[in-house]
Design brief:
This protein has about 190 residues and is of the alpha+beta class. It has four helices and eight strands. The longest helix is centred in the middle third of the chain and has 33 residues.
Length: about 190
């Protein structure tokens, strides 16, 4: 969940005070990098060929748990399933991306305050060319790069990186040669500086 600021932290209180002066986005200096909360790692591996599609087990938490803990277990299972399904989808696209010459796909994501978004930024081709998102139409026939970035964010963060008193910004790189998703920790890349 790369660069984060949230409720309960001194930086959040500082940001809340700034909002009284019509500041809508926290300054970059208030953010700190944290490891994506569902993946619990900054680099995720996915198989080059997909196995069976993951099954959603979120509806069946341990009935022995108290109701409050069942809700938490259900939420954690939903997040885990979203991550596993996203990895499976990326694995399903590996052969197509490789055949199309797409080596890496770049994007950003952000969330908090009941909203989350993903943005496709560009690709690197197997021949080394870097192509910005607005110029990829002829290079990505049949490959939905917007969906790839959404899946990468879901693999790292789970399905819910929107609800709560926090603001986060992240950048991801999907590498179809290495079969990895990397959550970018370089603040200059994440914030486009």
């Amino acid at each position: 969940m790369p660069y984060y600021i949230g409720a309960g932290e001194p930086e959040w209180d500082e940001y809340m005070a700034m909002m009284e002066d019509d500041v809508t986005e926290p300054p970059i200096s208030l953010f700190k990098y944290v490891v994506p909360w569902t993946a619990k790692t900054a680099v995720l591996q996915f198989p080059a060929t997909p196995g069976p599609q993951p099954q959603d087990l979120s509806a069946d938490p341990d009935p022995q748990l108290p109701p409050g803990q069942q809700w938490v277990a259900r939420f954690e299972n939903e997040q885990k399933f979203a991550s596993e399904l996203a990895l499976w989808k990326l694995s399903s696209m590996t052969a197509k991306c490789r055949a199309g010459g797409v080596k890496r796909v770049f994007g950003h994501y952000d969330g908090g305050g009941d909203e989350s978004f993903t943005y496709f930024r560009g690709i690197e081709m197997s021949d080394g060319r870097l192509i910005r998102a607005e110029s990829t139409h002829g290079e990505t026939r049949g490959i939905d790069c917007d969906e790839l970035i959404a899946d990468a964010a879901f693999a790292l963060m789970g399905r819910h990186f929107d609800a709560g008193e926090f603001v986060l910004h992240g950048a991801v790189v999907i590498d179809f040669d290495a079969c990895t998703i990397t959550d970018e920790s370089n603040i200059d890349v994440v914030f486009g500086r």
